[in-house]
Amino acid sequence: MLEDQMWFEPEEALAVAWRQGVDEGREIGADEAEMREVASLPRKDPEKRRRAFSLLDRWESAGMRDGYPWLEPDDLESIRKQREGGKGGRKPVPFLREKVYAAWLMRAAGCLLGKPVEGWYRDRIEGLLREAGNLPVRRYVEAPADGMPEDDDTNYTILALKLMEEKGWEFTPDDVGELWLASLPVLHLCTAERVAYLNMCNGFCPPRSARHHNAYREYVGAQIRGDFFGYVCPGDPEKAAELAWRDASISHVKNGIYGEMFVAAMLAEAAGTSRMEDIVRAGMGQIPQKSRLWAAAAQALDWWKNGTSAAAAVENVRKRFDETCGYDWCHVIPNAMIVCIGLLYGEGDFTKTVDLCLRAAFDTDCNCATAGSVVGMAMGIREADRGWIEPLKDKIHSGVDGMGTVRISDLADRAQRVFESRVQKA
After folding, report:
1. Tell me: the pLDDT tens digits for 306-361?
2. Cis omega (within 30 of 0) on the bond before 288?
3. DSSP string across 356-419
4. Coil, helix or strand for 26?
5. What is the 8-class DSSP label of residue 286?
6. What is the pLDDT of residue 89?
7. CB atoms within 10 A of CB 321
8. Dihedral through CA 420, CA 234, CA 218, CA 75, nearest 10?
9. Is 408 buried (19+), middle (13-18) or exposed (0-12) by CB count in 10 A?
């Protein structure tokens, strides 16, 4: 299980690193036998660590294999050249504070719903829900005692606010890295973020911090970090995706980066429409068309448009990805597909959307938070959502230095000021 890994011991991440390299097209297939041999050595054996570092260094510099079908650049200029529709024009959408407030609230609510069962497999989740008389989902698995407790899914959204308050609209990836080191304890980070953090401590600056010995560089972590950039770019998916790229590129590559751009762009689009198909397509429009993530989102759209049931769509994802494999469980692609399914089949209903995301399993708090955020931005607060909102008490407990416990309403106000700072410069 993921919780058994410390995420900064390279010899414990060999199987993940090998799978990641193969999936992104590296010519490393011949190393599988050696990888398994090294992985089988005793945990504290010095030879295991030495050989693990040797393999990771070799894989990091390995070339691309012939016939690899995907075109997945990391730099922003190349990503934009590979987009489906080219440059997306900015739409005249005003900043609506109440919609941004709803997005913050619904992100927290979705995270809070998924948090108690994070890491559980689907059968166990559904068993708990059934025993509690909460199937389909209509209320929290565990009601909060005092607002939204600290979680990385909300820490990063708050950290993005702090970033733009302190560094402005021209912040750089280096600014993001510096803020991480100043504002978050390392053990508050997971997988790719934790490895990137330690890389930066050891002198590896972005974008090298994202790749060096980072087996988790296409995990879902960046996808949970992009919401705020969408909040402050209403009607401007391209700008939201650009800001998300600057953030994601310090810890992720390829589809890991695209996941954050995809979500930020969806939220920027959701500021001006409630049509979930348009929102998903706007996210797809900011990432390379010949990427695995674009193809996965397109597949979810096809299922929805062709009349595949929600249950069958979820089952299709589960057949392709194995929830018992840590790599699949935390990779950006299956989790992005679950978010798309939740949005498309949920039809703007928060409860229906998070029910789908929760019961699909995989990274439950991440997916419910992301989908909830998009629904909140698109739909605002409806009367039916009050049962989810009121237990939050308008409060999030943050692990971000200098932020502490914050009012969600205050976060919406501060987001508006960030937005207005761009308008004033224009």
Report:
1. 999 999 999 999 999 999 999 999 999 999 999 999 999 999 999 999 999 999 99
2. no
3. HHHHT-SSHHHHHHHHHHHHHHHH---GGGHHHHGGGTTEEE--STTT-EEEHHHHHHHHHHHH
4. strand
5. T
6. 62
7. 19
8. -70
9. buried
Tokens of 28: 């490393």
Q: At what angle do helices 32-39 and 46-60 cross, to 10 degrees?
A: 150
Written as six digits, the tokens of 269 are 């689009």
Q: How far apart are CA 152 and CA 156, in angstroms?
A: 6
Q: Please state, in angstroms and rounded to a whole number, the distance separating the CA atoms of residues 156 and 196.
A: 15
pLDDT on residue 91 = 76
In contact, 329 and 320? CB cutoff 8 Å: no
Judge whether 97 and 413 are in contact, CB under 8 Å: yes
Q: Which positions of the chain have pLDDT values less than 70?
A: 1-8, 85-90, 426
pLDDT, residue 5, reads 47
Q: Report angle CA 99, 157, 365 to the nearest 5 degrees.
A: 90
Distance of CA 283 to the CA centre of its chain: 13
Distances (CA, A) of 336 to 28, 171, 196, 252, 317: 26, 26, 22, 15, 10
Q: Taking a C-beta distance cutoff of 8 angstroms, is the pair 215, 11 a contact?
A: no
Q: Dump pLDDT digits (tens) for 113-153.
A: 999 999 999 999 999 999 999 999 999 999 888 999 999 99
CA 240 to the chain's CA centroid: 15
Q: Which two tokens stand for residue 291?
A: 């990427």
Structural tokens at position 162: 């702090």
Q: CA-to-CA distance for 51 and 405, rounded, in angstroms? A: 45
Place of tokens 């209403």: 234
CA 332/CA 194 separation, integer angstroms? 16
Per-residue model confidence (pLDDT) at position 86: 57
Task: List phi, psi (to 5°) of 59.
Answer: -65, -35
